[in-house]
């Protein structure tokens, strides 16, 4: 545990809600469709929702992701604008760079989550903290918050998308890792 200025308690002693409340503004998570979005703040999909679809951010889903819902996906509010330096732009760039570095390889959900956690930590190091949290080590706080974001998103995938499921490199317009159509029964209907 690292604590600045001799304060009592530290990040390691805090739960995710307390960690999220240290930031200014606090980290807010929830399903995409329930987030209070604005011009300044947008709900960030973790990882990018295009990774779960055959093409784009909607429509047919790749195999192994059929239970994924873009609208119901766990997100968190980030500073938007896609302007250089905003949180959303930095996260988008990190995911695009990872996607492009993958080439034709389709990395697993776990690999995407590993990379996303690292990018979220870097972004959160720059977010302001509230006065009551200024005694805490900022790097440790950002790392703990990124881990909490990851844990909440991982929990939301349980029973829907397995951690070893290969995803599409959506940010690089990659191809789906599995056949694009659902299995068809002998009667010609999708099952």
Strand order of the largest sheet: 1-3-2
Number of H- or I-type helical stretches: 4
Oligomer: single chain
Listing every helix as H and every strand as E from the N terminus to the C terminus, the arrangement reads HEEEHHH
The portion of residues forming beta strands comes to 5-15%
Low-confidence stretches: 1-8, 180-191
What structural class do the secondary elements suggest? mainly alpha
Averaged pLDDT, please?
A: 87
Distance between the termini: 52 Å
Description:
The protein is globular and about 45 Å long. A three-stranded antiparallel sheet has the order 1-3-2, covered by helices on one side. The longest helix has 20 residues, at 138-157. With 191 residues, it is mainly alpha-helical. Mean pLDDT is 87; it is low at 1-8 and 180-191. The relative contact order is 0.21. Helices cover 30% and strands 7% of the residues.
């Amino acid at each position: 545990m690292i604590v600045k200025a001799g304060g009592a308690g530290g990040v390691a002693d805090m739960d995710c809600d307390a960690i999220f409340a240290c930031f200014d503004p606090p980290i807010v998570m929830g399903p995409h469709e329930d987030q209070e979005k604005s011009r300044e703040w947008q709900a960030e999909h973790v990882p990018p929702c295009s990774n779960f679809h055959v093409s784009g951010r909607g429509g047919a889903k790749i195999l192994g992701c059929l239970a994924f819902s873009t609208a119901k996906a766990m997100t968190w509010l980030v500073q938007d604008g896609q302007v250089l330096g905003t949180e959303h732009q930095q996260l988008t760039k990190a995911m695009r760079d990872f996607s492009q570095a993958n080439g034709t390889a389709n990395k697993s959900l776990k690999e995407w989550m590993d990379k996303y956690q690292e990018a979220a930590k870097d972004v959160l190091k720059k977010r302001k903290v509230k006065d009551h949290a200024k005694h805490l080590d900022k790097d440790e706080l950002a790392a703990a918050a990124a881990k909490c974001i990851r844990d909440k998103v991982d929990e939301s995938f349980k029973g829907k998308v397995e951690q070893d499921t290969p995803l599409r490199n959506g940010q690089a317009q990659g191809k789906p890792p599995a056949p694009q159509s659902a299995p068809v029964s002998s009667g010609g209907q999708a099952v």
